[in-house]
Amino acid sequence: MRHLTVYVDDREYNHFLELTQNLSYVKKIETDEEPTKEEIISNIKAGLKEVQRFKKGTLKTTSAKDFLNELQH
């Protein structure tokens, strides 16, 4: 499989994206779109739920030291 990077003017972006989504041989489309306000709020809510689970003891976490050690190895 090959990888292709295409730069498109903002005013043509949506049209180009629509075209590529309708091509059967295109397997994956990655964009650099900014997240919507709803997506940001949803992500924050999910993070807060994880904090609540951690405080209740139902979510196990890794210490920062262990996390950094994993990155080094």
Structure description:
Helices cover about 55% and strands about 0% of the residues. It is mainly alpha-helical. It has one domain (about 10-70). The longest helix has 20 residues, at about 35-55. It is elongated, with a radius of gyration of 20 Å.
The biggest sheet amounts to: none
In round numbers, the mean pLDDT is 90
Task: Name the helix and strand elements from N-terminus to C-terminus, one letter apiece.
Answer: HHH
Helix content: 55-70%
Report the end-to-end length measured between terminal Cα atoms. Answer: 30 Å
Instruction: Please state the overall shape, judged from the principal axes of the Cα atoms.
Output: elongated
Overall SS class: mainly alpha
Task: Provide tags for this entry.
single chain, 73 residues, mainly alpha, 56% helix
